[in-house]
Amino acid sequence: MNVYDGMRIASMLRGRGMTETDDVAAADLIVLNTCSVREKATNKVFSELGRIQKRKRPDALFGIVGCVARESGADAFRRIPELNFVLGPQSYHKLPEILDNPDSKLLNIDLSGLEKFDELNYSNLKPQTSNLSYIPIQEGCDHFCTYCIVPHTRGRELSRPFDDVMRDVHAAADTGAIEICFLGQNVNGYKFSLDNLIRETAKIDSIERIRFTSSYPTEMTDDLIALFGTEPKLLPFLNMPIQSGSPDVLTRMNRPYSLELYIDIVNKLLAARPDIQISSDFIVGFPGETDEDFEMTCDIARRIKYINSYSFKYSPRPHTPAAQFPNQIPENIKKVRLKILDEILTENNRAFNESCIGREMECLIEGPDKTGKHLLARTPYMQQVIIAANNLPPLQKIRITSANKCSLRGEIINLKS
What we know:
Elements: H1 2-14, E1 29-34, H2 39-55, E2 61-66, H3 67-72, H4 75-79, E3 85-87, H5 96-100, E4 106-108, H6 115-119, E5 132-136, E6 138-139, H7 150-153, E7 158-159, H8 162-174, E8 179-183, H9 194-202, E9 209-213, H10 222-230, E10 237-239, H11 247-252, H12 259-272, E11 277-284, H13 291-304, E12 308-313, H14 331-355, E13 360-368, E14 375-378, E15 384-387, E16 395-403, E17 408-412
Parallel strand pairs: 1-2, 2-3, 3-4, 5-8, 8-9, 10-11, 11-12, 15-17
Antiparallel strand pairs: 6-7, 13-14, 13-16, 14-15, 16-17
Helix pairs in contact: 10-12, 13-14
């Protein structure tokens, strides 16, 4: 979602005649787009703002947008009085107000519903620089996991009208996108039917790949699962966070699904599409997590063999019940557990990558690497592929020639026009 927000902010400012720069010292306006899911991320925001303040021109405007802005509110001005604006994730479309009144302070952290989507419709975007378009269909969350700050920073679940989303899909296709990724904190909870949205998108000839993230297990309906077996444009890859393999921990997290239900969903997905692969998210060291609880998490990681996962130490967040739970786990234990889990997840990742050697996959070309000597592409499983080539059409069949835990290398088979 932050990638999408950043894209919209950049487009909005380009519409005001501004151009992007990575040189803080040369910038007229500096926008830090933020995430507050973990405490470390929040702390890094204010450290970075301090560094920006020292490097920026005296007359340059700077501030924060996103979840840290929503979490901090007016306190951000107390911590860094020189800030010009603090805008939440549903009010960053107000940013031009500071350009019109540069001597003022702009604070807006309202949860204003779908207003930003109306203000920043997709047709206002400049031409795509990528073959991929992120399109949000849902924002906020009603699940209220006890560790999660999203309901506070992003608000309750809101689904964009079906026709508004399809307007954005068509606009993305018209500007060159061939892959659509539907976004939402609880994307498969989209109340106007995610499976119908995928079917309609698949009817657009120029759209060749469709995916969505991030999924909540209990929202994986049978119709959506079946679509993986009937719609070839839907990629054989799904992010479905489990967070823990312990039933007791899942209960304390307020994630009301059993391991049996989760595994049953995975089995249904495999039955619908045998080549599907799953990624996940994990939290270790949740309050009260025992050695036995943690071993259950390791067991599910070994059993499902996730090909790519994000794993984190539990981080207490404001406004969340878990921050007040007893039996908080010491940092040194969380660190050891994370290392053990990461070793399992890394081995799963490496094993899958190595199993791809010799396979031919249709990959989406992303663009040149930093050296300019290679191209970067993505397989249908979101693996990065490095190719010794340039100036390729957006979708190419690539033979995988080598692999490591992080990426693949490949070669073009037959150049597609």
